[in-house]
Amino acid sequence: MSSLVEPSFLETLPMLPQRLLGDALRSFGVPEGLAFAAETAVAAIIVLSLFGGMFALISLIERKVLARIQNRPGPNRVGFCGILQPMADGIKMLTKEDVVPVSADRLLHFLAPVLIVIPSILALGVLPYGREWVPVPLALGLLFFFAVGAMTELSIFLAGWASGSKFPLLGAMRAIAQMVSYELPLMLSATAVVMLSGTLSLSGIVEKQGGWTLGFLPAWNLFTPWGLVAGAIFFIAGIAEANRCPFDLPEGESEIVAGHMTEYSGFKYALFFMGEYLGLFALSGLGITLFLGGWQAPLPGLGWVPSYVWFFLKLAAVIFFFLWIRGTFPRVRMDQLMRFAWMFLIPVALLNLPSAAIWHYTGGGLIGWLACGPFLVVPYLALTIHFNRGLARNTRTYRFAE
Predict the structure, then answer these.
(1) How many domains does the chain have?
(2) Residue whose C-alpha is closest to residue 344's, from 371, 381, 374, 373
(3) By residue range, what is the domain housing residue 203?
(4) CA-atom Rg of the chain in angstroms
(5) Measured between alpha carbons, how far is 172 from 111 in angstroms, rounded to an integer?
């Protein structure tokens, strides 16, 4: 197919339906505002269909990966090698009874799982998936991403409060405390990228990472001292924001039943998981855009491959890393979670901002590494020593039963 179809056509293929619709409407004299709204609706349908299918697929892949890590077969009864398990799970969720507590606010109880999906869909709509594939191009795309992401905390609180029970409310408050705390290092790590890129446009940030260093190393932000630190902070904070292990405290079943989802069943319960996975896709896509060059090719000479292929290959690698982390790390305590955010991640993220400025004014290269390295390594070691000392006493007292 690649020999018969021009690469330029392959690049524009994902945007073709909305462009055809927009051109057809404009040719019939439809106002520009309505044509743009129709194009946006088509783009939303494409993105929602794509990531909705990925949600169904990743629910199977995650169970298979965890089973492999834990030396067990995983789902293998429904369809060939369990390939129809997501369909079986969907049918089960649709047919299960929707139980609403007597003391719950029925309207808000219904709205909470719906509202938790919307921010992730909106965030996915502004990511640049390819050179020509940006569903909704915004000059302030990064700002819009974080703005709609703030709706998630409201939805979680709504779910806990509307359930009319103390367990969902306590779980919601714990989830909000976690998400607000880890939003700070997440945004601070993105701020360093904005400083060096000089733009809030996600497409502009990707274009700034074009080119090569030493002829073969991609000029991605991750391959700089400040970008390496910011990328690590972003990834760790993203795990907490997506409620993934080892930071999956909001759904700590052994401690608070199921958190803010305790009083939900059936399809409403499935919507919470859908919102969680879509949020994971959105955060992973943003991390790829900020630190891994977005749709840029990883090696010279691979520009003939459609750019969105590179984006989704990177997305698959990042998602696999999230699954790997879940299968190998135990859950932390709530006090450890909050302490790690406020006493370690946030100070390191703040120190990374002047490091990014030093990199800019030194012109990068070897001089930039020599200037930024000590500025980041010495405070990191000091904070690590201070943080570890605060976790445990210097002397321990052991008491035995008599």
Answers:
(1) 1
(2) 381
(3) 83-385
(4) 23
(5) 15
Task: Write out the E strands in 189-309.
Answer: 212-213, 217-218
**Does residue 362 lie within any of the structural domains?**
yes
Residue 61 in any domain: the answer is no
Q: Give pTM, 2 decimals.
A: 0.88
Verify cis geometry, omega within 30 degrees of 0, for the bond prior to 246. Answer: yes
Q: Which residues contact 376 (CB under 8 A, 6 or more apart)?
A: 225, 226, 229, 351, 352, 355
Local confidence pLDDT in tens for the 402 residues of the chain: 344 445 567 888 888 888 888 888 888 888 888 888 888 888 888 888 899 889 888 989 999 999 998 888 888 888 888 888 888 888 888 888 888 888 888 888 888 888 888 888 889 989 999 888 888 888 888 999 999 988 888 888 888 888 888 888 888 888 888 888 999 999 999 999 999 998 999 999 999 998 888 778 898 999 999 999 999 999 999 998 888 888 887 776 566 567 788 888 888 888 888 888 999 999 999 999 999 998 999 988 887 888 899 999 999 999 999 999 988 888 888 888 888 888 889 999 999 999 999 988 888 788 888 888 888 888 888 888 777 776 655 556 667 665
Distance CA 69, CA 98 (A): 34
Distance CA 38, CA 140 (A): 21
Please check whether residue 235 lies inside any domain of the structure: yes
Tokens of 286: 């943003």
Structural tokens at position 129: 């998936």
Q: Is residue 187 part of a domain?
A: yes
C-beta contacts of 36-45 below 8 A and 24+ residues apart: 40/125, 40/135, 40/136, 42/17, 42/18, 43/15, 43/18, 43/125, 43/135, 43/136, 44/121, 44/125, 44/135
Beta bridge pairs of residue 184: none
Cα–Cα distance measured from residue 108 to residue 208, given in angstroms and rounded to the nearest whole number: 44
